């Protein structure tokens, strides 16, 4: 749109119906907590070789990176909540053993490792829910997941753009936004 009274260009946004279907792909903040994440992305990006216009090459590289990130996410993190539940179960088993006989050195070491891993997964889960809920003012360590679930679900209803006016031309494809 043209500038009227300001030195900034106004943007016309039209609200529309909600998009149903697959969730769009976006960077998960918890990935940044993984060791050597940025280095992995740099290696993957450099390994993609495509021919064509710069915009075509960019689109192809982004699509390839998306697939690599999805694969890596599945192997590196998987279902964080499920993994955490499994670790809690193992920790409870060790606590039950303590009641009947003393733990061996290996079992004590396993218990310490389980606690450390549970803390790490809890942090990753919090980072993920905080990103989805767009509540950034909470500090690391808060575990109010019921609140995060509610905020995420309420925010998800309003995260779509059906069309944009760019240089007088209406673009009618739908873009779903996720804020982190």
Query: Numbering strands along the chain, what is their spatial order in the largest sheet?
Result: 1-4
The number of helices is: 5
The helix-strand sequence is HHHHHEEEE
Work out the helicity level. 40-55%
Distance between the termini: 28 Å
Give the tally of structural domains. Answer: 1
Low-confidence segments, given as residue ranges, are: 135-141, 174-180
* Beta-strand proportion: 5-15%
Number of strand elements: 4
Outline type: elongated
Rg from Cα:
23 Å
SS-based structural class?
A: mainly alpha
Q: State mean pLDDT (0 to 100 scale).
A: 75
Instruction: Characterize the largest beta sheet: strand count, sense, and whether it forms a barrel.
Output: 2 strands, antiparallel
Explain what you see.
This protein has 180 residues and is mainly alpha-helical. It has one domain (29-176). It is built from five helices and four strands. It has helices at residues 37-47, 54-76, 80-100, 105-133, 145-156, and strands at 160-161, 164-166, 169-171, 175-176. A two-stranded antiparallel ribbon has the order 1-4. Strands 2-3 form a two-stranded antiparallel sheet. A hairpin with a 2-residue loop joins strand 2 and strand 3 (169-171). Helix 3 (80-100) runs antiparallel to helix 4 and helix 4 (105-133) packs parallel to helix 5. The radius of gyration is 23 Å and the shape is elongated. The protein starts with 36 loop residues before the first helix and ends with a strand. Residues 135-141 and 174-180 have low confidence and may be disordered.
């Amino acid at each position: 749109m043209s500038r009227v009274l300001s030195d900034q260009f106004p943007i016309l946004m039209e609200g529309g119906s909600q998009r149903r279907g697959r969730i769009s792909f976006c960077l998960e903040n918890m990935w940044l907590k993984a060791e050597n994440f940025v280095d992995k992305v740099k290696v993957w990006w450099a390994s993609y070789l495509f021919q064509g216009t710069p915009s075509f090459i960019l689109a192809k590289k982004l699509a390839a990176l998306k697939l690599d990130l999805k694969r890596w996410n599945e192997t590196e993190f998987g279902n964080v909540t499920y993994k955490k539940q499994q670790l809690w179960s193992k920790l409870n088993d060790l606590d039950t053993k303590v009641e009947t006989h003393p733990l061996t050195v290996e079992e004590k070491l396993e218990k310490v490792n389980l606690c450390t891993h549970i803390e790490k997964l809890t942090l990753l889960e919090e980072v993920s829910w905080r990103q989805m809920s767009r509540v950034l003012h909470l500090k690391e360590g808060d575990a109010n997941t019921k609140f995060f679930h509610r905020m995420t679900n309420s925010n998800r209803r309003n995260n779509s753009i059906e069309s944009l006016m760019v240089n007088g031309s209406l673009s009618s494809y739908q873009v779903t936004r996720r804020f982190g």
